[in-house]
Structures are given as structure tokens and as C-alpha cells.
Write a structure and sequence with these properties.
22% helix; alpha+beta; single chain; 3 helices; Nuclear Transport Factor 2, Chain: A; globular; 174 residues
């Protein structure tokens, strides 16, 4: 690329590195809360007006209530015996990031697929911004095509780019 470059890392440029440990405490407690399947009192970790910004298929939630009603409740209805396993976490000032997986049983309707009882792995990546002890922003990527593939649905109709892969590239389990 020649010429002017786009501005990079605008959201993290002015992060206060002195807040790293506070952010770590909020995120670790929040993940424990999600693993305890808490919904009604999850506001302990999230600001009322926090934004949850997901990829296509997940949507965007513009408030704590929106997150509870339009993510947590349907997700828990579709997947039981769910446990969240962060495989890696990074902390920098008011920012935290993680990737990992949820292991769960498909026990309710999910994207038009009736419950199958199949144990699935739900891969994800999260980036959180914490202000004054509460999560205010959550950028999320959830691998729903992978979940659907485990349920026998190929959303790419055989046109996925896995065809370009050389052999098995499945990441090793931790």
C-alpha cells in the first residue's frame, strides 16, 4: 500500500495501563458468572448501557437488558450443560481479550435446527473494554458455521475455503 495509511488501534491508543489488574478482576469474575449461568444479576459485571457487538448471526445488543433477553436467554435455551473455557486471555489497561470455546449440549432450537442432543464445541473470541469496574463494550466473534457443521448443516454448501487447506489443520487441544 502506498500513500496515506489508515489510522490504527484508535480504541486502545490511550488505555490506562494502571487499570490492567482491575480489568483482569472484572473479566475473571464475569466468566465465572457466565459459567454459573447467571442472567438476572449479571449487571454486577456489565454497565447498563453496554454494547455487545457480534458477527453476522449473533447480532448487536445495545444494553444489558438486550444482552440478557436476546443473547443469554436464547443461548442457554439452545445449549445446556454449557461451560466456557478461555484458552488464552490478554489484558492491557481497560482492555481484555480472550479466545476459547464453550462446550455444551444442543438441547433447544438453534438457527432453525431442533434440539439434537449433540455435544458441540462453540468457538469464540471476545474483546472487552472495562470502565469504572464494568464492561462497557464487548466485541465478539462466535463461530456459528462451525456449530452448525457439528449439527450436520454446511452453511457454505461445499464452497468453504477448507478446500484450499493442506491436510488436517485443526488446532491442537490445550
Amino acid at each position: 500500500m502506498t500513500g496515506a495509511r489508515p489510522e490504527q488501534a484508535v480504541l486502545t491508543r490511550d488505555t490506562d495501563l494502571n487499570k490492567t489488574e482491575d480489568t483482569r478482576r472484572v473479566i475473571e469474575s464475569m466468566v465465572d458468572g457466565l459459567n454459573d449461568h447467571r442472567i438476572a444479576d449479571i449487571g454486577e459485571f456489565f454497565a447498563e448501557g453496554f454494547r455487545w457487538m457480534g458477527n453476522t448471526g449473533c447480532g448487536t445488543k445495545d444494553s444489558l437488558r438486550d444482552f440478557q433477553d436476546n443473547w443469554q436467554k436464547p443461548f442457554q435455551a439452545a445449549f445446556s450443560d454449557k461451560v466456557c473455557i478461555d484458552e488464552a486471555r490478554l489484558y492491557m489497561g481497560e482492555w481484555a481479550a480472550a479466545f476459547g470455546r464453550q462446550e455444551a449440549v444442543h438441547s433447544g432450537p438453534f438457527m432453525g435446527v431442533d434440539a439434537t442432543g449433540t455435544r458441540v464445541t462453540i468457538r469464540y473470541m471476545d474483546f472487552w473494554k472495562v470502565v469504572d469496574g464494568k464492561i462497557v463494550d464487548n466485541y465478539v466473534m462466535v463461530d456459528f458455521p462451525h456449530v452448525l457443521a457439528q449439527l450436520g448443516i454446511d452453511v457454505f454448501n461445499g464452497e468453504g475455503w477448507e478446500a484450499f487447506d493442506r491436510g488436517d489443520r485443526t488446532p491442537p487441544a490445550p
